[in-house]
Write a structure and sequence with these properties.
The protein is of the alpha/beta class. The chain has 2 domains: 205 residues, Glycogen Phosphorylase B (Rossmann fold, 3-Layer(aba) Sandwich); 180 residues, 3-Layer(aba) Sandwich (Rossmann fold), CATH 3.40.50.2000. The strands form 2 sheets. The chain has an 8-stranded mixed sheet with strand order 3-4-2-1-5-6-7-8, with helices on both faces. β5, α3 and β6 form a beta-alpha-beta unit. The longest helix is centred in the first third of the chain and has 22 residues. 42% of the residues are buried.
């Protein structure tokens, strides 16, 4: 099949590892032709062009700024991206006969492009639903339901679901949410198509672990809890701060917060003022250092704002599972990520408004034997449920005669 993939993620090559590139590589390995339309933000000063990479063609479309910018610029970029993608498709890809178009959220703004593909090219469509917008913005008080922008985006969201032949959700809770909030969507087209990766074995020697800990002044004898990723409003940074404060007297636990985002400065102000002895905030690490550091830690952390009504399912869970470490998730009660972690016996969950519960679980996870067993369970659960083959099989069962 000829597969067209639309995404807001900046894909330079499918050699790089991510939930999308791993899946696209698997399509290529299964002898499909893969074409990608991916954005490059204006701030990088790169013109629209095609890049050939590993038996794929990547059409990199110049758009406005989207990441790490204000809500107004981000909103305007989302509104224009459909027009820019369609224009680029007509210029560069219109002579190809595609069999299937796969696209991910965010954003919800590919409606015109998809309608054009369905009506003029007769292409079947598969939505990978990774983000439920605009409700997530409403949950975090970034957008009000009385705001005309909300109704504009909500209308686009409903059009996106209507134009999709199939909708793959990250978990059962996501399936239930979509069907409850959008009763016009037929249940037969909505299914679980989970976040997935091509797991690799990462063996870090004891010497390398010691070196990276020395480099970043991390105690070797403590249980290291790591959070790596976005530090924005979805993570509920006030609660992260509360947890660090609550656990500040624990001498056998050390907290490493690594990342960047709109709330990084709030965290930095806290660290500069309070200087917690058993915690460190890091930003802008070299990729090799972060990978080594992440695979030298003992427990992976997930944080989600307690106000969320949508069932988020952060993909960073998979990197922790790949590293064979247990997971401690502090989230809203609407996501089922905590249930999956605890049912799989590879970590613990608490609500992200209860720092005492978080503290108690940290104490439990300082038990080395427990961590090692949960870490083995994490890797096994990943290999049994969240490989790219699982996602590929879910998608392709609809298109194989």
């Amino acid at each position: 099949m000829k597969i067209l993939f639309l995404t807001i993620t900046n894909i330079k090559s499918i050699k790089n590892k991510s939930i999308y590139t791993d899946l696209l590589r698997y399509f290529v390995d299964c002898n499909h032709e893969v074409f990608i339309i991916s954005p490059v933000e204006r701030k990088y000063k790169t013109a629209t062009k095609i890049v050939q990479s590993n038996n794929t063609k990547i059409l990199r479309v110049k758009i406005g700024n989207y990441q790490k910018t204000n809500i107004i610029e981000k909103g305007l970029t989302l509104l224009r991206i459909d027009y820019l993608f369609l224009k680029a498709f007509k210029k560069y890809f219109t002579n190809y006969n595609f069999d299937l178009v796969i696209y991910s959220t965010p954003p919800i703004s590919f409606v015109k492009t998809l309608r054009y593909l369905k009506e003029t090219k007769n292409i079947e469509t598969y939505l990978l639903l990774k983000d439920i917008f605009p409700q997530n913005a409403v949950d975090l008080k970034m957008l009000s339901k009385t705001n005309p922008l909300y109704w504009l985006f909500r209308k686009k969201e409903k059009k996106l679901y209507k134009i999709s032949d199939y909708i793959g959700c990250m978990s059962e809770a996501n399936v239930d949410f979509i069907l409850k909030e959008n009763p016009e969507v037929h249940p037969a087209i909505v299914e679980v198509c989970p976040n997935s990766i091509d797991p690799v074995s990462i063996n870090v020697s004891k010497i390398d672990k010691e070196k990276i800990k020395i480099k970043y002044n991390i105690p070797e004898t403590s249980t290291i809890f790591i959070y790596g990723g976005n530090l924005g409003k979805p993570q509920g940074i006030d609660f992260v701060i509360e947890c660090v404060k609550k656990c500040s007297e624990l001498r056998n636990a050390y907290f490493l917060i690594v990342g960047s985002g709109t709330e990084f400065n709030k965290l930095k102000l806290f660290y500069d003022k309070e200087k917690p002895a058993n915690s460190q905030l890091l930003s802008q690490l070299p990729k090799e250092d972060y990978q080594l550091l992440a695979n030298s830690c003992d427990v992976g952390l997930i944080f989600l704002d307690h106000r969320f009504t949508i069932p988020n399912f952060p993909s960073r869970l998979l990197s922790y599972m790949q590293a064979s470490i247990p997971v401690l998730a502090a989230t809203d009660p609407n996501t089922d990520i905590g249930k999956i972690i605890e049912d799989g016996n590879f970590g613990y969950w608490c609500e992200s408004n209860n720092s005492q519960a978080f503290y108690d679980l940290v104490v439990k996870l300082c038990d080395k034997d427990l961590r090692e067993q949960m870490g083995r369970n994490a890797r096994k659960y990943l290999e049994n449920n969240y490989t790219v083959k699982h996602s590929y099989d879910v998608i392709m069962k609809h298109f194989q005669n």
